[in-house]
Amino acid sequence: MGRKLLTEHINVEGIETLDVYRKHGGYRSVEKALKTMTPEEVVEEVKKSGLRGRGGAGFPTGLKWSFLAKPEGVPRHLVCNADESEPGTFKDRQLMSKLPHLLIEGMITGSYALGANTSYIYIRGELLYVLRILEKAIAEAYAAGFLGKNILGSGYDLDLYVHPGGGAYICGEETALLESLEGKRGNPRNKPPFPAVQGLWARPTVVNNVESIAAVPVIVNEGGDEYAKIGVGKSTGTKLISACGHLKQPGIYEIELGLPVEEFIYSDEYCGGIWKGRELKAVVAGGSSVPILPKELILKTAAGENRLMTYESLSDGGFVTGTMLGSGGFIAMDETTCIVRNTWNFSRFYHHESCGQCSPCREGTGWMEKVLHRLEHGHGRMEDIDLLVSVAKQIEGNTICPLGEAAAWPVAAAVRHFRDEFEWHVTHSQQAAQPGAVYPGALVTV
Amino acid sequence: MESTATAAKPQFSEAAQAEIERICKQYPDDRRKSAMLPVLHIAQAEFGGWVSPEVQDLVAEVLGVKPIEVYEVSSFYTMFNLKPVGKHVLEICRTGPCMLRGSDELTAHLERITGAKVGGPASEDGLFTLKEVECLAACGFAPIVQVREQYYEQLDTPEAVDAMLTELRNQVHRPALPWEETGLPNAVANN
């Protein structure tokens, strides 16, 4: 069992209250940072930790912090991205509802490091009940002197607020999130300028995922070098994995980066294998946007090495034979899963969630959904399969934000690894269109 | 909505007004528009689970923005219902991980026992509106239905679905929000 840096106390009774949280070492990083460290020293520790953005992009957090512009007299902001919406991902919801003070502690220490005096947690609107939990915890933190004016006598002031979204996947993209926080439609902005220069209300802003911010307290307490000792290479620390789909024990697992994928799926300590005694068919390892891999390629790389839960190992082989760690939304599919149906489902999602600004995404996602719908429902043509690949290629790289790629990659990967199954949907269209139809071909086609 | 011409102009309750003012203070004085989404959520809770054009105009007035600035937002985000709904809106997650654990069957089952159709009007008794939504971020507990602020998880047995529907049928008022003493009667507005 690996170390648990974030979730060690998640099941302690009353841990959502400030008293119990403090008894388990809570808010130590605020005391340490505000009383003994300069903001620059906090940024330096986060840089040394090697922490990479846990929302999906994997960009080094410390580096992102160091890009923040600091013009004289202009307020700057730290905004927490709690718009968790990537299908397959549900770690932030668990973390915030059970350990609200961990996020608040990270927000205080992080805001201090960035010189922000007003910070926001942007939470997806569906999670209004979690917003209530956070607001209650924030009120406790104000009463205890961890928020407000002159925190712990340090002279540092911070106000922290929670802001709900309204139901839009696109608001997980950081500039769409900022538009939404300004009370507008969630249309991503053209970049540059980047948020670090012109973010919320055109002020310098850092946007970080919940899990990234929640890692700041342990990094400050134990030091960036200590944190970086966990993991493999440039994948340092621990990661929350949201395990779902056809697993025996779905749920949230905090793993040390570097855990073999096979152990994660089959060990009773983690997912306990595939449900109903079935065989694994495929895995989407990092949220719905990342390429799907058949069983053989998720367990081992094309070179035959054990695949590890790290940014590097999962992407080994590029998009030809690899995938991405992404948000850690780990969706397992058993042998009865229809890959065409699943791909159609994801395409419908991206079509529904496209903000509509860029034609390639607005039109392309709809086109892919339509073609996949007809393949799944018995009206497909053989040339549809290459048409899908062609549409996906034309979306990729031609949009303001990465939703275009997120929509294109899963389709391209499904055709790449499961072309036989797509062809079977054309050659056996009536059979394939039956509810619950299972492709009888080879289990794995590489 | 033929009756709206004669309907009295909607007004927020005092409790809701106080909550709106608390929220507006979270943003700079000249950025009151930032409170758009939280205020729309309050409006939907206050006025029977949906936001009519009149309610949206009220939101515009409260925030000091043009009505079009509210319309363009309410039509973008999927949580805001722009048509009358039943007493309880059942938001069924239909995305991949929920589909893998039976959301299609759950939707069919809910249509059968409530008599309502996804995307259609409320059930004849006015109790339930069915709405399919995209990923609710609870994939490990699939399949899932959200009703207002409540998540109902692991609805993979008829018993679990029955328990949810019984609980909802027994709700006279919607659950109170933190700034309210009691929840409002959630008027059935499926006329």
From TrEMBL, chain A:
Record SUPFAM superfamilies: Nqo1 FMN-binding domain-like (SSF142019), Nqo1 middle domain-like (SSF142984), Nqo1C-terminal domain-like (SSF140490)
Keywords from the named record: 4Fe-4S, Flavoprotein, FMN, Iron, Iron-sulfur, Metal-binding, NAD, Oxidoreductase, Quinone, Translocase
Keyword NAD among UniProt keywords: yes
Cofactors (names): [4Fe-4S] cluster; FMN
GO biological process annotation, one example: cellular respiration
Catalytic reactions on record: a quinone + NADH + 5 H(+)(in) = a quinol + NAD(+) + 4 H(+)(out)
Enzyme class per UniProt: translocase
A Gene Ontology molecular function term of the record: NADH dehydrogenase (ubiquinone) activity
SMART domains: NADH_4Fe-4S
Similarity section: Belongs to the complex I 51 kDa subunit family.
Stored NCBIfam families: nuoF_fam, PRK13596.1
Protein name: NADH-quinone oxidoreductase subunit F
Organism of origin: Hymenobacter amundsenii
Automatic annotation (TrEMBL), chain B:
Keywords attached to this entry: 2Fe-2S, Iron, Iron-sulfur, Metal-binding
Pfam families assigned to the protein according to its UniProt record, in alphabetical order: 2Fe-2S_thioredx
Organism, scientific name: Hymenobacter amundsenii
Protein's recorded name: NAD(P)H-dependent oxidoreductase subunit E
Gene Ontology molecular-function annotations: 2 iron, 2 sulfur cluster binding; metal ion binding; NADH dehydrogenase activity
Cofactor: [2Fe-2S] cluster
Residues reported in the UniProt entry to bind [2Fe-2S] cluster: C93, C98, C135, C139
Family: Belongs to the complex I 24 kDa subunit family.
Co-factor remark: Binds 1 [2Fe-2S] cluster.
